[in-house]
Structures are given as structure tokens and as C-alpha cells.
Hints:
- The complex is a heterodimer of chains A (52) and B (609).
- Chain A has 52 residues and is mainly α.
- Chain A is built from two helices and no strands.
- Helix content of chain B is 56%, strand content 8%.
- Chain B has 20 helices and twelve strands.
- Chain B has a seven-stranded mixed β-sheet, sandwiched between helices. In chain B, strands 5-10-7 form a three-stranded mixed β-sheet.
- In chain B, helix 5 (152-166) links the parallel strand 2 (141-147) and strand 3 (175-179).
- Chain B is globular.
- Classes of the chains: A mainly alpha (52), B alpha/beta (609).
Amino acid sequence: MNHDQGDTVAFRFDMKALEPRPAPLDMPRQVLEHAERPSIMYMVSRLFLRNA
Amino acid sequence: MLNARPSCIWSAASSCGTPDLQPHLRPLRTRLNRAGALTFAALCTVTAAATLTQAGLNAGFDAWDAAAVFLIAITTGWLAWGAAQAFVGLPSLAPLPRVGLITHAFPPTAILVPICNENPVEVCARVQAMHMSLQKAGVPADFAILSDTSDPDALIAERIALAPLFSLDDGPNRVYYRVRTDRYGRKAGNVEEFIRKSGGNYTYVVMLDADSLMEGETIRHMVHRMEGNPGIGLLQTLPKIVGANSAFGRAMQFSASFHSPVFARGLARMQGQAGPFWGHNAIARVRAVSQCCGLPELSGPPPFGGTILSHDYVEAALLVRGGWQVEMDPRIEGSFEEGPDNLLAFARRDRRWCQGNLQHIRLLNAPGLRSWSRFVFVQGILSYLVSLAWGAFLIVSMLSAATAGTPNYFPNSYQLFPVFPDDRTFQIIALAVGVGGLLLLPKLAIFAESVAVRRTAGFGGAGRAFASVLSETLLTALIAPLMLMYQSRAVAEVLSGRDGGWPATARGEGRLTMLDGWRSGQWITLFGVAVTIFVMQAAPALIVWLLPVTIPMIIAPLLITVTSWRIFTSVFRVPQETALSPVVADYRRRMAQDAGKEGIPNGAITRSA
């Protein structure tokens, strides 16, 4: 995800050395939306398809 | 992780030692304050609605009257809620708790400075000033400048300007810098990426904006507070605005220093342990953030789907959902930010916030949130919808007057004397006085409080402070119709599905020319003229009542321009000018030294407002 974009510019610092030291942490995505309920039409069509 | 809870919440916190629970945050007090404020707002709402209903009944209650009653109930309720917040905040809080020395090693702390196409010279000077302040305070905290800068020229300028920071000795205050090309999640995603990759190194992160400044002692105090109460997930300060020069900016700066502490005390009392997060000038526990603040993208396209724009409110709600306390303490000094210097910059920022807050409509039903967190979302949403309600109320009032027929003096067939319609003037004046009172009383009460606790000295004494309060009120009243128009347009754009994005404010737009003012305000002028012509034709009796709205609209370009002009610092004086904070003074000194510095290419350098 991180890239050194200043390669074309003379820069006396090692960009990698300037980056924060790695120490990964888990950061799960939070649930903010309810699972979408299937519509009645979808359920009816499923029912007919299953019986077909 | 929906039900992820801290391992050391209240019950466990007690076993960790005596938690540092502030008296005003006790749950019973919080409930009483909320109940009191809600009751006051409800009473004002009912009174306003009843008064207008009575006025309507006197002359035959019709559909226009019903609409007007509905709209006045919403708007008055909102005003009363704001006034209640000020009244709840009038009594002082207990003195700021003294924090003891940390006996064990100072907990690893990182100060995060997320930037995105900012002015790098300013960023460098701010970090240098805070670096020095931290060293003086003996606080061993690292800086992490997290760049989302995308413009190649700006990126080159950024690296050149920030180079002095990279030369600093590897002492207790290291400065890290990384550039992210994948700008997932904007600012929240920028911080999140740091937590995911490097969060394990730190116990706390101090979150800043590009224009934030904090004293080293303030950061020390906040770390101590977090150490003293293992249940706190986030501690928010009330940053003071500094560096304003224009009439508009200085009025905002004065209001933020004079009125905001009282409003913030009220907010702190009502929000209790489910306080706000404003996205910067706050400290957070890394474990709490990593457990609770991984924000998803919302389903569907912007403006209601996609990246969560006003992420801070959501993160606060998620921390509370996860069992952490979110505390806001307006007593903490030494926390600063800058504000927009003109009405256009303010309106542009407001457009972003409008979209972010309205997006919270999608989150009102989010699973597991505390009811107060949902109520906070509702407040944020209402803060923009109320502008529409005010506009609609004015339109309904005009149309009601315009469509009213001529009075029937002889409603009965056999009638000797005419029947005159009841005069509604008393009710209308009572309503106007009531609404005006809700606007003015909190400010006057705050002035009385400041005199009582001898807080006016920093504002140039009681007389000068009172003059500033009156001037700020007058200026606010003048620009209120303009903000009504800008906010109504913003709400209409968002509701019609138009994504405004999250653009930064262009740099160097402090002082505006008349041409700038005309370009940005002409549509308001035209609207004001159209309204005036319509009212003169259809309901001339209303013209006087509408003058406080129509005159500012007609002169909008002039107001926008003139309020952006620099004014004397003796007007709207604030304490942070007379007794300059060391970190602010150091920052200004460095900026003065850097003035005219060579080697910084001109590019798309912007700063966030």
C-alpha cells in the first residue's frame, strides 16, 4: 500500500527507514448495517424454483 | 467483534485501582441532566406550537397554519435544546483532577498527524513546536506524520519541507513519516492503516489534525488520565481556535473561547460517559480503537453509501458500543486548532459536514448502538435539516399571508354590526420574543457567568467582553440568512444524491475580493430580491417582518467580502492572544522564520479548514 513516490527527486533520506516500525494489530471491520432481508418476491420465486 | 468489550471495563477497572471517574460523569447525574434538558426543550416546543395554533384559530385554522405549527415546533425545539445545553453548562465543573507521577515507564504513545495535500511548511513548524514542547515536558512520545498527499508537486514540497524533522536526533520523540497511495477510508482509513500496521507498538495515540497544536504538558495530563481510568477508550479536549485575523474568523474565535466552554460543559454533563469525538485533539487507547473502530464502507453509492465521511461520531458510538467510555473534558487547556477565516471556507466545510451528518441516517438503526449514540446522530442530522425547516417556515408564512382572502365582516345573513377578525399580533410578537429569547438568553447567561467567575479579564474586561458578545450576536444575525441558504442548498444537494466529496480548502483564501463575494453570493442576492418583490406584491404587511432576512440576503456579496477583511486584534479579544501559549508562540516564531523560504515548489498546496 505504501510507495515511495519521490524517486525522481534527489532525497537524502531513506523513506523506508522513516516509516513507523511494524507491529500489526487486528482491526476487525465493524458491523453497522443489518443483513439485508430477502424480498417477498425473491422468497416466493425461490419456493417455486425449488418445487419445479 | 460486535460485542467486543474491553478486558478492563468498570468492574474490572476497580480491581486495577481506583478509576478516575469525574463527578459530573456519574450515570445518575447524566440522566438527570438529559431529562432536564429534554423537558425544557419539550416545554418550549409545546408553548411555541400552542401559541401559533391559537393565532391560527383566531383567524380560521387552515392547512398553512398546520404546516406553520409543525415547522415552528421543530425549529423552536431545536433552539431550546441548544439553549438547554448552555444552561446545563453554566455551573462550573470541579477543578481539573491533579494527576500524579507515573511510577512505571511512560506508556508508549504516538502522536498521529494525518495530512493530505496540506501546507507542509506549516505542518513542519507545528510538529517542531510540539516536539520542543514534549521535550520540555519530558514526555517520550513519537510523532507519526501519515501522508495521503496525492499531488506529485505537493508530495515533493512536502518531503522538502518536512526534511528538518527527519534530521532530529533519535531521542525519546522520534518522527516517523509514511506516504499512502491507496487512500482507502480517507482520514479515518489513514489512521486505521497506522493502527493495523504499527499500532502494536503503542498504548495510546494522540489524534491531531494538520492544523492542531497541543502542549506537551497537555499530552502528559491526558496520558495520566487514561492511565488512571482503564475504562476510558477516548478522551477528547475542547480545542481553542487560534490565529484568526478576519472579522468572521475573529468572531468565531471569540465565540469558541467565550461561549463554547459553557456549551461544552453542558454537552459533557449530558453525554456523560458516552461523549463525543471530534476527530482530532483527542487521545485514544490503541486497544479500544483496534477492537471497535474498523469502519466498513456502507453499501450503495455516495452520498449515503461508501466511505463514512463524519467518521468521528461513528467511532465514538462504536467505542461506547464496545463498552468503552468516551469522555470529553473542556477543562483541559493547551489544545488548539485553526478555523476558517471567511464565510466561504466555513460554508465549504459545512457542506462536507452536512453530507457526513446526513449519511448518519443510514446508521440510526445500526445494531447494538446505545440509544444516546443514536440520539447524537439524530442531533447531527437535525442540525442541518433545521435550516430547511426555517426556510420552509418563512415560505409557508409568506404563502399563508399571500393566499389569505379578504376578511368577511358579515358572516351571517342577518347581522347588524360587522365582525372584525381577531388580531393575531399579540401571539406573533410573543412567539418572536420567545424565539429571540432562546437565541439571546444563553449568550447573556454565559456573559453573566463569565462576570461572576471573573473570566472576562482575558477578554479585555467585562465592558469589552460585553461589546464582543453584542458584536458577535449582530454578526451572527447578519450571516444567519446566508448560512440558511448555504445549508438548505447543501441539504438539497445531498438529498438529491449529489456527492460533494471531501475536498480540502484552497490555501490563501483568507481575504476575499468583491468579485469573489459577488460570484459566490449573487444567487443569494437574486433570491432575496425575488422574495422581496413577491412579498411586496402578495403580502405587503409581511415586508417589515422579513427585513432581517431579506436585507442580509440582498447584500450577501458585501457581507461575504467585508467579513473576510482583517480587523484590529482589539476587537473580539481572546485570552490566548494576551497570554500566548508557549507552543503557539513557538509555532508562530518558526513560521516567521520560514517566511519566504526557498525550495518549496508552488503546487496544489492546500490546508484543511
